[in-house]
Amino acid sequence: MEFLTLLYALPIFYFLFMIWKRVDARRDQECYILDYQCHKPTDDRMLDTQFCGELIKRTKNLGLLEYKFLLRNIVRSGVGEQTYAPRNVFEGREENPILHDVISEMEEFFHDSIAKLFARTSICPSDIDVLVVNVSMLSTVPSLAARIINHYKMRDDIKVYNITGMGCSATLISHDIVRNIFKSNKNLYALVVSTESLSPNWYSGTDHSMILTNCLFRSGGCAILLTNKRELKNKAMFKLKCLVRTHHAADEAYGCCMQKEDEQERLGFHLGKNLPKVATRAFVDNLRVIAPKILPMSELLRFMYVSLVRKLMSQTSSKSGGRSTGTKPVINFRTGVDHFCLHTGGKAIIDGVGMSLELELSDYDLEPSRMSLHRFGNTSSSGLWYVLGYMEAKKRLKKGDRVFMIGFGSGFHCNSCLWEVVRDLGDANVWKDCIDEYPPKSLANPFMEKYGWINQEDASTFTSL
Question: Can you give the pTM of this predicted structure?
Fold first, then answer.
């Protein structure tokens, strides 16, 4: 009898053991951020109104129409006077960069931010198991990842990924790579490096769709240290809950953000007029996938119920010959999200996402993105981390809070993820010298005050700035 009992119990114990083993294995597949370090270039690379005016003056191809276009868009951009540019711009060589300019721009960031990150976490470079570097508009030989490995003397067996061409949302693509590696390998450290190279990408032509990038993009970068070591989970800052990538490249979305030459064969980065429409469609498709992953069941059931009732009422109204009434049901993302970390692509993008029917964000929600754009400009893929740094510096991030990151990029990409705050955070990071000044009373820059007279000029009499 006892033998039969044991015989029947063995499958049950085996089944329970396999469940425990699966659950235990998942604990080693989690993705944690231990720390991150945003880059703050030196003050001699800061762009103020006076220097920007001089920079525009020496661009000989520009005429009155281009000056008016630049003035209008700089004023509307949301970018302030304390952003940063590459050194070759200050040396007057933005139209003729050399390889040294490109490499020195990258190495200045690598040597500063990565070193600070290692010092803050007491992690040795030789401990890093995975290195992912994303720089969209630069590809060197040897790779930028190889330069980092050489400088910090990392291990020979390190897994290396060097990503180009993925645009402003590339940082979340890098994290997706790390997340997938963590699923099949235990006890790893990963370093993600996100930045953009501006030295070789100044546009000196007159195409309005390509001049815009000169107004928005600025120097910056961020190094992020991640791990899946379960013993470090209480020391971590954030835990990745889910990540969704949306890529529209089979239709008109493909060409809305593209590096190309203008009619005079000057290389630049084109931003199409259909960009807002493309971004909105990718954004909605991305939300449709990630919403069930991050929102509580109660909110999903409420939304389904309201949608069903509205549909039935609409059918009843159409049969009776009347018009359907009621507003379109909206899902409440606040039930699963505490903070919104939006891509700092420009004032229009931030405001457009904030006012979208899907999110309906308040000024408080949009403040971190607006302030990051004003202080640092659009730093491409690293921009999301300046926004996150602002939230941390303002002591908004408390244990258990959920941060929703949304990034857009050429291709066209819309990538998003949800981070859970593991412990109360309050380090000022890159904002430590200016956080008390934000938000300012006004985000208006002085360009209109200084150069507003251009709008009164006539093309037939105008000579130059």
Answer: 0.91
Contact between 112 and 222 under an 8 Å Cβ cutoff? The reply is: no
Q: Which amino acid is at 169?
A: S
- State the Cα–Cα distance between residues 111 and 42, nearest whole angstrom: 13
54-69: pLDDT as tens digits: 888 888 888 888 888 9
Residue in 31, 38, 52, 168 annotated catalytic: 168
Q: Examine the residue annotation and report whether 247 is marked as an active-site residue of this protein.
A: yes
Taking the chain, what is the end-to-end CA distance rounded to the nearest angstrom?
101
- Whether 38 contacts 429, CB under 8 Å: yes
pLDDT one-digit tens code per residue, 269-321: 999 988 888 998 999 999 999 999 999 999 999 989 988 888 888 777 766 66
CA distance 413 to 227: 26
Catalytic: 378? yes
134 catalytic? Reply is no
Say how far apart CA 198 and CA 407 lie, in whole Å.
Answer: 20
Tell me, yes or no, if 339 is annotated catalytic. Answer: yes
Contact between 353 and 359 (Cβ < 8 Å): yes
Q: From the candidates 175, 248, 339, 413, give the one annotated as an active-site residue.
A: 339
pLDDT for residue 249 is more than 80: yes
**179 residue type, one letter:** R
Catalytic residue among 201, 343, 415, 417: 343
Question: Which is catalytic among the residues 39, 247, 248, 270?
Answer: 247
- 462 confidence band (pLDDT: 50, 70, 90): low
CA–CA separation, 331 vs 199, rounded Å? 43
CA distance 263 to 368: 39
Q: Please say whether the beta carbons of 126 and 153 come within 8 A.
A: yes
pLDDT score, position 12: 66
Of the chain, the percentage scoring pLDDT greater than 70 comes to 90
Mean pLDDT across 447-464: 77
Mean pLDDT of the chain: 90
CA–CA separation, 305 and 311 (whole Å): 10
Alpha carbon separation from 81 to 13, 118, 235, 374 (Å, rounded): 67, 31, 37, 8
The reply to whether 208 belongs to the active site is no
Q: What number of other Cβ atoms are within 10 A of residue 314's Cβ? A: 15
* Residue 168 annotated as catalytic: yes
The DSSP annotation for 79-112 comes to --S-EE--HHHHTT-TTS--HHHHHHHHHHHIII
Average pLDDT over residues 221-242: 97
Catalytic residue among 73, 134, 228, 378: 378
